[in-house]
Amino acid sequence: MAWCATVLTLYPEMFPGPLGHSLAGRALAAGAWSLRAAQIRDHATDRHRSVDDTPAGGGAGMVMRADVLAAAVDNALRREPELALLAMTPRGEPLRQEFVRELAGGPGVVVLCGRFEGMDERLFEARPIRPVSVGDYVLSGGEVAALVLLDACVRLLPGVMGAAHSGVDESFETGLLEYPQYTRPYDWEGRLIPEALRSGDHARIAAWRQARAVEDTRLRRPDLMERRGGVPGHRPLARGDDRDD
Ligand code: ADE
To answer: How far is Cα 76 from Cα 63, in angstroms, rounded to an integer?
Structure first.
């Protein structure tokens, strides 16, 4: 069975959106994964088909109702009981490559997309839903976050990335940011491709890349460095192997 994604949303027309193009779109057309976007409002029960109500305790905006969301979730899980159940919310745990790999290695996901001021918290007590955030900023809804999560998963599915390159050197796969890349022309506006990369010496190239991955991670993402517990045995770039700028 192909990897299966069900998105529960008030805006099913937002899908597949960008995932209908390029790598993910070709994989979708080829049947490497499937996507179903289901309308949450179909599970509303009152005559106004309402999915939200005012926040208990007062405050701005509206809150998505637990009963309507639970009906949408239960329906999805009845159809596909083995899928991981996620909800996109800025209150969730940060999405990381390790979790993406775990999801891509499983049968697929049901992704609930929040809107408005959030979802009634009782939903998370009553159903085994994992809340997931794509970063420390607030989007106007969970749909764009769901597209991010699905894109990250789909590119890891067997055969999707195509080339022999399996992404092992990529940012986060090693716990570091990826080393910087260069291509022709050799001289662009007086900036040269680093000497080590043109040496043809594979050991030297690998050492240069590892050193730059460590250096850039240290500068840009000290939090990642911390998580690795530092880099034992790391040797700073030797003179002459340093950046040319
Ligand atoms: N919905 C709104 N903001 C979000 C975020 N940062 N991550 C996941 N879902 C969201």
So the answer is: 21
